[in-house]
Amino acid sequence: MKVSKLSQDQALKQAATWFVELQSEYCNDQRRQAFSQWLLQNPAHQQAYDDIASLWGNLDKLKSREVTGLNVARSTRPRLWRNGKILTGSLLLATVLTGAWQDFKAPSTAYQTGIGERQTVQLADGSKLQLNTDTQLRVRLSWWRREIELQQGEAMFNVAHQAWRPFTVNTGNLKIQDIGTVFNVRHDNHGTAVSVLEGEVALHAGRSWFGENLPAGFSRKIDPNGHWQKSEKTNPEQVAAWLNGHLLFDHTPLTDVVAELERYHAVRFAFADPALAKQTLSGSFNTADLKPFLQALEKVLPIRVQRQKQTIVLYSR
Description:
The protein is of the alpha+beta class. It is 32% helix and 34% strand.
């Protein structure tokens, strides 16, 4: 059964009111029975109540912040208005919950780059996002929160500080919460890597409420199964090199080097001799031009390059 937006809003308001009343010490068996009957009236009622309960369980910022009238609403017993209508703390809190639900459902905007492309996105809050090659993400800005979903790829986040409105990046099974920072996040089939250039972030794995802080100058990785690697010192210049269209390598195994280049070009590398993958390479290379890299390979390493359409085969020489 399709539920209209109007009936959805009405169900949410009713669910918010029921939620608050059920928490009250004045709720009796008769009211609980009425609640059970309300749930059975429409399948949308159960969904609305589950949504409100879930939302309230995650409103940690709201519950820890002073909101005008909210503390009074929690403790006030019903009293009569002059016109005979009843004003309750439950109604006020229900209004807050319904507003929070509408905030939670704020629309999102999608951004995407192709292979070899970069894009800069300036958000309305003053934050700047820089997207690297083959990246997809969604941005949701609302009154209470700033939320990014990094679906794949890599992005640098320069976050405008707003203590009252948290900035979070969700990717895979990792939630990254900004604490006034510039940080880089890369997400692919191998997991998620976070590098902090300025400030600090809090890392939350899965649904954990408890995070681990990662300060500037350090990076940390988590694999697709949620297993952490130890945090490591990072080279800010190397992390941010892609912003200027470069890749920096420092005694990097060749297998990792070519994997990086495959992100920026529609090619695949193959090793005719598997031992070549263990060779290391250092230097700075332009992400947009593959030819100088291939020429450098043949000059500095015992390698012969042969290109076969979209496949580049590396031979020993």
